[in-house]
User: What shape does this take?
Amino acid sequence: MKRYVLYGLAIVGIVSLVGVIWWLLANPAEGGYGPSFFISVSIFVLVFAAISLRWMHETAAALLGASAVWLVHYIGGSFFPALHIIDFEESMAFVDWNVIWLIMGMMIFMAMFSETGAINWVAFRTFRLAKGNAWLLMMSLVILTGVLSAFLNDVTAILLIVPLSIEIAQTVGIHPFAFVIPEVLASNIGGAATIIGDPPSTIVGSHLGLSFVEYLVNMAPIAILCMIPLVIIISIFYRRELAGAKEKFSPALIAQLEEDARITDVPLLRKAGLVGLLMVVLFFTGDFFGGIPASVIALSGAAILVAWVKPDVHRMLLEVDWTTLIFFIGIFIIVGGLEATEVIAWIAGIIGNLAGDNLSLATVLMVWIPGIASGIIANIPFTVASLPIADFLSAAIPGAENMVLYWSLILGADLGGNSTFVGSAPNIVAVGLLGQAGYRLSFGRFMRDGVPVTVATLIMATVWLLIRY
Assistant: This one.
């Protein structure tokens, strides 16, 4: 009898709770934050958790989150207007298509350029020039990765450099971590130097409508400076491994490396080199042509090369990372839901209250909050979510018209992504490549190198921004 009483009370409690929720949805309070506010936050948090804790692939999480935003809006909103978040047409306005087309264009171009073997050839020549000096070899590969990350993009640079670096490390006789981890850290730093180097750079630069040169003159100097603490820290951490490297290389492995590093398609290299040179010229001179967007340049270069080379389009398009592009679109839609329900304005208000009218304090916050958060969660969705906050603070704080808060966001997200291997896309890609080669890189092992470099570069970036702006 007692059991049935408890069951009855439980049913009454559940029905009462559902009734209360139903009444609140049907009679939303005037002012304050409604149900759509909390639902959009919940969707965003769950997507972040799914990405960070590896519950599912990041693209699947982003698609699921975007679908949840629409389903709540359309189905839930049909019964309760308080559940309206953002409709399909409105959400498309929040997708930064300049970013999507820019990344797509660069991926198509690099899919063809990589078939020439030029990157492997350059890396092997770097190996030969080191002549047995393991430290010089590591520094050369690190700098090469940083430069490639700036002018290709960081994920492409890692995909091209890391497999060869693993072979080279085995040849030298040291653990591949000594090359690969510093290369990943250099990739995130170098990617901050140009608008096409790293996704956070592309997202913010596109949002501001910056030209290649405008971005370069502001970010390249600090990106170069941040390479200094990286070089110092990794030289200290790997001094024993480097000192114990073999002075004589295995002739068999050298022969294998040289075989893998041949220019495989000279005609394609000439065509890709000419088109790539034209793209670089347009990146630097785009302002003279009505401010031609970087996405137009990248996509035009890819289209010209495709028309000229006439590759197997189906095979070439398989090289494009469509999962990344779809991930971007999903994240833009989810963040659009946050903005439409005024979640972004609420967060910006909190940071604004902390900073007040103090631009220096706001600058520090906009470096270190993304810097810390990007090590816990992926820096791409965090950057998208933080952009409206930077907009709000830039409009509210006197003196912020110089865009210092946007530069702060870029550096915080790019440099902060170095602290853990889930912080940015190049980190995750590198871990996967190491795993394929039989080397398991743990979370803690990456942090041993990543956290000190992150802290040192964030400090340098903060000082630079406070002095420069």
The mean pLDDT is 81. The radius of gyration is 25 Å. The chain is about 80% helix and 0% strand.
